[in-house]
Amino acid sequence: MKLHGFFRSSASYRLRIALALKGIAAEQVAVHISRPGGGDQFQPGFRKLNPQLLVPVLEDDGHAFVQSLAILEYWEETHPTPPILPEGAAARARVRGLALMIACEMHPLNNLRVLNYLTGTLGASEDAKLAWYRHWVKLGFDALEPMLANSAETGIFCQGDAPTIADICLVPQVFNAKRFDCPLGDYPTIMRIYETCEKLPAFAAAHPSRQPDAA
Amino acid sequence: MKLHGFFRSSASYRLRIALALKGIAAEQVAVHISRPGGGDQFQPGFRKLNPQLLVPVLEDDGHAFVQSLAILEYWEETHPTPPILPEGAAARARVRGLALMIACEMHPLNNLRVLNYLTGTLGASEDAKLAWYRHWVKLGFDALEPMLANSAETGIFCQGDAPTIADICLVPQVFNAKRFDCPLGDYPTIMRIYETCEKLPAFAAAHPSRQPDAA
Fold first, then answer.
1. Which of B39, B38, B19, B45 is nearest to B201 (CA)?
2. Which residue of A has its CA nearest to B60?
3. Does B30 touch chain A if contact means CB atoms closer than 8 Å?
4. Which one is the CATH code of A2-82+205-210: 3.40.50.10580, 3.40.225.10, 3.30.1160.10, 3.40.30.10?
5. With an 8 Å Cβ cutoff, are B54 and A140 in contact?
6. What topology is assigned to A89-203 in CATH?
7. In degrees to the nearest 10, what's the CA dihedral of B166, B171, B177, B183?
8. DSSP code of A3?
9. Splitting chain A (215 residues) into consecutive groups of 10 residues, what average pLDDT does each group show?
């Protein structure tokens, strides 16, 4: 099993957490996506692996799987212990919903190629780019905070007392929000869960600063 | 079961297709999200249902579920026949990957609130907004087309000969691409699958033009 990723990529970070939680061994290949003048994702070899030119990609058993949430579900099916989805259809739907709120509505808007389009094609200033970034983080966390704070299903983690794909998406999103100095004071529940996760060895081992390709 | 949606919303359209494919009965509630001066999603009642202020929302069994892909998985678990995911972890990962390529990397960038931010806050022209829209459709379909065309797993539909969540995401994305006059001539496989789906009663019944709230 070979995981192509980048230390600072949110979606790669999610997969590193899951690998560590589940104790799955995978060779990790660094794809430097923000190299000045064009990242490694534009090389022909990578283009063949993932025509969408995004990390992460998982090579396993002759397949090249894309999209981090699809890969998390793949591992949940092939390596079910410990689980990263709860039992029960309703609880699973809540957890997937929380994960997708981050993976669909926050992260893609603040992806590197989107920020590059803003400043390049649209000629947005650095300040306008930062405001854009913080706007989508704020909208997302403004919704996540009450959904976590007001639900009896929230426990030590987003759902009960074991980490799930919701926490796996939350932690990299908070990491990135901190990197862009987004105000986080209004999100006590998000930050409590983030800090709880950070204390777990699996989350700590997956941190961007601890990856071999960290600059 | 009560589904809150909007006739033209891609994510609502996905869920209508799945309801029809699976033969699930649900009351449909129209949430007019593009009303001049502020859509129905900003009303207090809806904000309580989904603090993210997005459609669709599924009310079922005392829960309010958000995010269309989470709801598709929920129905797959609670109403497994006919399935909208294939058998086998690798095939399921491929299908989820294709669906997420649309749901994460294409659709959120061209969402109403993003387009409003471009023209409002960033002062982008209508032409620049259209170019933005077409850019992300092109990037997404440029990747999807070879992934579908070059895979032996592609059949009549995205995966084999039965519709899955990949087709359920693909059809509304093509519908929207057509609405914004995106060039589609370079995507023969995508268009073949789209046209095959359109002939199925479940996809036809879910079409935006056939919903009671269509203007």
1. B19
2. A90
3. no
4. 3.40.30.10
5. no
6. Glutathione S-transferase Yfyf (Class Pi); Chain A, domain 2 (1.20.1050)
7. 80
8. E
9. 95 98 96 82 85 93 96 98 98 98 97 94 96 98 98 98 98 97 98 98 97 86
